[in-house]
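User: Predict the structure for this protein chain, please.
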Amino acid sequence: MSTRLDRWIPLVLLLGGVVIPVVGWLVGVYLLFKSSVWTTKQKVMAALVLPFGLLPAFWVLLTPVKVVAANSAAAAAGPNYVLIVVWIALVVAPILTYRSLRRSLLLNSVNR
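Assistant: Here is the predicted structure, written as C-alpha cells:
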C-alpha cells in the first residue's frame, strides 16, 4: 500500500545525498527498502545506480580544474570529453532512476 511517505522516497534518494551528504541518501535507501510499493529488483536497482544520488555529479562539477596556459599542449588537446561524458552519466542515471521509481509508484497507486 502506498503511503504519503512513499511519494518522497524517490526525491530523498535523488537529493538526500546533496542536502545531507551520504546520510541523506542512506535514509532514502532505508525508506526504500522498508516500503512495499516497489519490487526487490527495483529497490536494488535504485540503490546501486550511482549511489548517493546527484552528490557525485556535484563533486565532479565543483572539483577544481587545473588551469593551463593557452599555448600548452593540454590546451591544444581541447576539452576533456571523458570528464564531460562521466558528468552527464552522473546526472542522467539518477534522474532516470528517479523517474522510474515515480512511474512505478503512480502505476501502483492506480492499480490498487
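The mean pLDDT is 83.
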